[in-house]
Design goal:
This protein is an all-alpha fold. The chain has twelve helices and no strands. The N terminus is likely disordered.
């Protein structure tokens, strides 16, 4: 191959990679922009409905969470009962998803000033979860800038499955079971993860993660996963894991 032709191929490849990265980056930014709009709207129902999508998004950007923090600061005084306490509880839960320590002072402020048992309970949980989300968001968002719009959640779930963190594995298995059961790539990755973790699963979170992986494989209705489920049903240390493997055999 001639020198000029090799250079041309390199340039074309570089342009292709740049285009993919640009498209992926714009897809991720567009998603963050939508979350930001929801937070800036101050609309409680929209914010509450966004929680499930934001929870495992890997998003930690202040441009999404600063408007949410402002809502907390504007509403925490006097939110001691009824709907006000309910709304504030959801707002502090959402703030924990950021994984950003800059919001810890705000959470502590709410905790110190609220007389609502419900608000205190959820604020304490938020304070506990925020450092965990710092770790989780970094794992979930790995490579996100290169993902296309259609591939954003596939990449996230794949990152969660390969993380070695049983809480993330369980969350990923649930998403496959309920939403991505027809994604063969994720189903196969879930099978690989189950094959790795089921033999020694004994702690509660390990067992729960393995059980949900069995449910994810069952929901896929993929005949090629039946042999693994049969293996798990016979050999798993945990009775709960064996039960779910057997239950999801077709």
């Amino acid at each position: 191959m001639g020198f000029v032709k090799r250079i041309a191929i390199v340039l074309v490849s570089a342009l292709f990679v740049a285009q993919v990265q640009a498209e992926g980056g714009s897809a991720f930014q567009a998603e963050m922009d939508e979350f930001k709009k929801v937070m800036e709207s101050g609309h409680y129902t929209k914010i509450k409905n966004a929680y499930d999508d934001l929870q495992w998004s890997g998003i930690s950007s202040p441009e999404v969470y600063d408007p949410l923090e402002k809502l907390v600061l504007d509403s925490y005084k006097g939110a001691d009962s009824g709907k006000d306490a309910e709304k504030l509880s959801w707002l502090v839960k959402g703030l924990a998803l950021s994984g950003n320590a800059k919001y810890m002072d705000t959470l502590n402020l709410v905790l110190a000033n609220s007389s609502s048992g419900k608000v205190k309970k959820h604020t304490n949980k938020a304070i506990d979860r925020l450092p965990k989300y710092k770790v989780w968001n970094e794992v979930i968002a790995k490579g996100i800038a290169q993902a296309s719009e259609d591939g954003l959640n596939e990449l996230r779930i794949g990152n969660m499955l390969s993380s070695g963190d049983y809480y993330l594995i369980r969350a990923a298995a649930k998403r496959i079971h309920f939403e991505y059961f027809d994604n063969s790539k994720l189903v196969n990755q879930a099978a690989d993860t189950l094959r790795t973790i089921y033999p020694d699963a004994s702690e509660s979170i390990e067992v729960d993660a393995a059980a949900w992986l069995c449910k994810a494989l069952g929901a896929s209705e993929d005949e090629s996963q039946q042999a693994l489920l049969q293996e798990v049903a016979k050999k798993a240390k945990s009775g709960k894991v064996r039960k779910h493997a057997k239950k999801n055999l077709s």
